[in-house]
Amino acid sequence: MAQTRFSAGRRDILRILGTGAAASALPFGIGLAGAADKLVVGVIYVGPRDDFGYNQAQAQAVAVLKKMPGVKVVEEEKVPETVAVQKTMEAMINQDKATLIFATSFGYFDPHVLKMAEKYPNVRFAHCGGLWTAGKHPKNVGSFFGYIDECQYLDGIAAASASKSKKLGFIAAKPIPQVLRNINAFLLGARSVDPKATVKVIFTGDWSLPVKEAEAANSLIDQGVDVLTCHVDSPKVIVETAERRGVYSCGYHASQAKLAPKGYLTGAEWDWQTPYTQIVKATLDGKPMINFLRGGLKDGFVKPSSFGPAVSADAKKKSEAVKAAMLKGDFPIFKGPLLDNTGKTVIPAGKVLGQQDPLLESMNYLVDGVIGQV
Amino acid sequence: MSETTDGLAFGSLALALLGGALRVSTPFLFVSLGECITEKSGRINLGLEGTLVLGAMGGYGIALLTGSPWLGVLAAGLCGVLMGLLHGALCSLPKVNDIAVGIALMLFGTGLAFFLGKPLIQPQAPMLPSVELGAWSDSEQLRSALRINVLLPLGLALAGLLHWGFRSSRWGLALRLVGDNAAAARALGYPVVPIRIGATAAGGFLAGVGGAFLSLYYPGSWNEGLSSGQGLMAVALVIFARWSPLRCALAALLFGAAGALGPALQSQGITAGYYLFNAAPYVLTLALMAASWTPGQTLAGAPGELSFTQR
């Protein structure tokens, strides 16, 4: 506690000294005028911006923000999901005068973003992936996310069509609701093509563990899996390993088609510029913070990668038909009767969960056909 | 019937662990052999994690620039030599603690590698070729388990060579003398400080080559999470192996297999408790350290000049 107070104090002193120096060096305070009328947006990434994956997808949207008039962007990469992110946020708020912060990694939300939001009620915090709840979370916090399970369902169609063994593999980092939802959607997509298809899941335990990811890919392929996909921060290693071993792969976050010219089927990509620009525009116009922002294919939040050469015409047709239904907004992925892989009914017969249903955002099961355990 | 399937599953798990050991163990092997040479001279270089990461980055960069992965391996080794020379030289100054310098160099090496490696995350460098030891088999799983990189047999041969060299060669005896009793070495006319610097540089070379294996063969990509502490574990492994190169090789294979345990079990459908299995290499490190440290006694086989064996 004393530590925090001391460092805040030191930062304040530095700021006063800095402003004093700038003001005395420049006549009439010209130096301060330029920055004051621009909206300073802070963006925090958990990894490097060009990782062929999660952070790259975010950075592509930030590149669009940088071109917006009246917006100045400050960024910091490789900020861990610990108290370090609070320090980064405070530095952005106090030193760079950021009034809107994009915290792009799942683990930043609770408690870090929530704590900072209470401390700085005049700063807006946009978090990617969290579940903002009215009454429970501060008004200056918002969470945005995309229904990327729609693209995972399309991946599942392409994967089961290309697979000979009908054994698919999914390498995941941690069993959090978003990841489980992706795995389940991938399986349901695959089962829409072949009701016997299965998905083997390996949890590696963290977002970026290249050796373990390669090892997971190899052991899945050794077990007869012939299509791999994943939910880790950078799918590069997995897609490359699949290509080297001569099996198919579906990408995630961004397009990895370049890494696997033969085996890349399709992939689930983010298109974050839609939510980013909406949130920034609301801030510029002085409208209240958008607390809960979600969208899928039809809202332009996510998109499938273009098909690779190994996708058959038949699979393309099936996939395009489902995509068209999703674009119209009448394709619920999760509907009853649905069993989890321990035999328990998770969605009773006759019940349909729309994509916006918040129940789906607290998913804690793997559906029947997925081999793995939460 | 169920017995046969159990037998089959067990066989396939054993095969998966063998494959994992052969794929994952090479960096452990090189780093631990390097550390073994350094510690035999009486110095500890904890910075080999930094050297490993810097070697991985440097090797990847050079392989990308020149198109030759073997030049990459050489460059990685040279990065390691430079880091080793830096450590050796700093520790030769009076009143400098080698453990503190090692930690500083670990942070320096990883930081420098992340900084210089930014533009290398995207491009694909040419990879080291693999050797098909399993070409005679018609089991795809066995073939893939026995698909190894030539660095692994080189490392194993080096372990044998070091084992022989430490016992029977002139340079090996000199190295051990310097590490066991600097005063005696000086009395015999051996230059203590240059030998130690040389041993640290040689250790750095091997750690750098271990890094090149990571980025140029398996997993074969430059990325900031590439090493995830393998360099540090390899240093611990030297103590567990009691400064014997042959035991280092065994321990490296064991650590490789432990690292493959989590994914292998899950792909076999044994899915409970994967957090525990994923932590296997770390648990193994702790358990082995606890088992091999005896309080109040000098470790058997430890070079007498190491800072932690001094009282």
Radius of gyration of chain A: 22 Å
Largest interface: A-B, 40 and 42 residues
Regions of chain A with pLDDT < 50 over 5+ consecutive residues? 1-9, 18-35
The rough form of chain B would be described as globular
* Tally of DSSP helical segments of chain B: 13
CATH class bucket of chain B: Mainly Alpha
Q: Which features characterize this protein?
A:
heterodimer; A: alpha/beta; Rossmann fold; 17 strands; 40% helix; B: 311 residues; mainly alpha; 13 helices; 2% strand; disordered N terminus
What features would you describe in this structure?
In chain A, strands 12-10-9-8-6-7-17 form a seven-stranded mixed beta sheet, with helices on both faces. Chain A starts with a helix and ends with a strand. Chain A is built from eleven helices and 17 strands. Chain A is α/β, with parallel strands linked by helices. Chain A folds into two domains: 37-147 and 272-298, Response regulator (Rossmann fold); 149-269 and 302-329, Response regulator (Rossmann fold, 3-Layer(aba) Sandwich), CATH 3.40.50.2300. Chain A has helices at 2-25, 30-36, 54-66, 83-94, 109-119, 149-162, 177-193, 210-222, 236-245, 273-284, 313-328, and strands at 39-44, 71-76, 100-103, 124-128, 141-146, 167-172, 198-203, 227-231, 248-253, 264-270, 292-295, 302-304, 334-335, 338-339, 345-347, 352-353, 370-371. In chain A, helix 3 (54-66) packs across helix 10, helix 4 runs parallel beside helix 5 (109-119) and helix 6 runs antiparallel to helix 11 (313-328). In chain A, helix 9 links the parallel strand 8 (227-231) and strand 9. Chain B has 311 residues and is mainly α. Chain B has one domain: ABC transporter involved in vitamin B12 uptake, BtuC, CATH 1.10.3470. Helices cover 70% and strands 2% of the residues of chain B. Chain B is built from 13 helices and two strands; from the N terminus they run ααααβαβαααααααα. Chain B has a two-stranded antiparallel ribbon with strand order 1-2. In chain B, helix 1 runs antiparallel to helix 9 and helix 6 packs across helix 7. Chain B is globular. The relative contact order of chain B is 0.21.
